[in-house]
Design a protein that fits this description.
Elements: H1 19-22, E1 25-31, H2 38-49, H3 53-66, E2 68-75, H4 76-88, E3 92-97
Antiparallel strand pairs: 1-2, 1-3
Helix pairs in contact: 2-3
Length: 101
């Protein structure tokens, strides 16, 4: 017998990652400092990370008040060029592995 109830939704779990796939995810984090201006951090996030002006403004506020913010996620290898470009601009940036996905 099939269920013809239009309110019934069938879900499939297609987002299961193997343990090795989970290790591929990392975060690019920028830390607050006393050297860079809000404008420079915002412009760097727009230029390097491709964020919108609004996203970059919000992230710079989070960095200022929380001390750090995750600005991009992905595999460690994909984040390295972003980190290097941000560090070249004088920002304090690092890549940290994500504990769980």
């Amino acid at each position: 017998m099939t269920n013809s109830n239009p309110m019934t939704v069938t879900l499939e779990d297609t987002s299961v990652l193997t343990q090795s796939e989970q290790k591929l995810y990392a975060q690019l984090i920028i830390f607050n400092d006393d050297h860079n201006t809000f404008d420079w951090v915002i412009q760097s996030l727009v230029d390097v990370c491709g964020h919108t002006l609004e996203q970059s403004e919000q992230l710079s506020i989070i960095i200022h008040f929380k001390g750090k913010a995750t600005v991009k996620t992905g595999s460690r290898s994909s984040l390295i060029p972003y980190k290097d470009a941000l560090v070249d601009r004088g920002l304090s940036a690092t890549i940290e592995e994500v504990k769980s996905v």
